[in-house]
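note to self — DONT lose this again. spent like an hour looking for the file last time. sequence + predicted structure for the chain T wanted, 491 res
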Amino acid sequence: MQGHSVSFRYGSVVALAFTGVLSAHAQPRTTSIPSCLDYVEGMKQKIEANYAGFRLEIVGERRAEYEGFVESLREHARSIATDQCYETLHGFTTWFNDPHLFVFQSSRIDSAEGQGRRDRITRRQLSEVTVRGELQRRMGRLDPIEGIWTDGRLRVAVVPAGMDRFEAIVLTADSASWSPGDVRGTFVRENEGYRVTLVGRNYAERVLEGSIHKRVLLRISPEMWAREYPVVPEDAGLVDISDPRRPTLLEREGTVIVSIPSHSPAYKQVLDSMIARNADVFRDSPRLIVDLRGNEGGSSLMSDGLLPYILSDHELPERFPERGGAVMLSSPDQMAYARRAFGPDTTRFVRTLLERLEAEPGGFAPLMEPGQERPVTRPDSLIHGPSYVGVMIDEGTVSASEVLVLKALRSTRAVVFGLATAGALDYQSTYIVPLVPGDGRWFLGYPTITRDTLLPLDGMRGNGIAPQVRLDWNLIPDPINHVDRALRGHP
């Protein structure tokens, strides 16, 4: 697994989001297989040592509730095999209700294991012509997951396979080891989403959660798929089927629509170039819609090119004002994160940050040096093109994309529509650490940077960022047109 560090802003603080390069991956795998209980104990130790949300929020009655919960996990872990442990570990992290606290599943397997899984792959006799015909025949009665989806070169048909169960069958393979008709994954409907068992190119199997956003975007974190068929005209162009993370730009009846499925820093130049090429369109349009539904996060710097068209001369009050500066909980893993995410120890920032962390073992240290100048978060100049800006959000709008939502809420020309966001900015910037030394099966992803030590006071975890105009997108036939009409003054 490759990693990178990227920066994103929250308020006037610059934080760095890190997607792990795991030192554990370089270690030899243990000769004995850890038990599920070993993993549970490892997760307990890592959460309590590294997760600031545990230190700040699991106190009093909540601490007693936590201890009882952990004991129940231990009891269950003693009764199951290691292969069945994922659900137990997943239940551990979801108990905290923090999008930045999760179980990371390694996709590394040896060649023998991969060959064994390849031999067990289910195959279906199914042509694309048949799939399209059946989808067309049942149009209007389809489950939202049914259809043809793409992820770069991979194209799959998701079709029914039982009650609330669906299979992803390969139409176009993304590697020579896969063939049309191979079953690449299964989806089981659970409440508003799906429980997904997904098989990678190398036949590594992962259990994930799937959710559909703007009807054409399927998030199976860390994967993302785009709907190729069927797509109604109202949703056309909101996702690039050749690259689901790539931002897109549309113009409808004088309104510019920018759809941003991901804030990955890899797409900053793509978005900046798109804005530069269409500068006249942005300036001349009276309305701008920024669609952040399902945005997976990444780096808030990715969308800075849009700020001149969103912000206003007069700023409204902050929804979540800064109260004392970001901090880091001090631990050995946190110090390793600082070295990996912020650069070499020879830089002043890293050197002084490590000094502050070393001086507060088990405590909180300020992220920035006392008196250090905060970075400016406003663009050098505003562009008074669009008079009205609509920002579309939902429960899948997470992390760095929420920074853009907070900025839009301060603008007098912007209105935020939809459902509350994921609420992932109290505890920010993810690092991934092993649960069992020397074993590379499951890891803990946890947030490294904390908004301030007054949390959970006025926090957003569990609540998200509320829109100014609440809309249930599932009840609206044409969400883009609905927002456009509202911006025109005709809700």
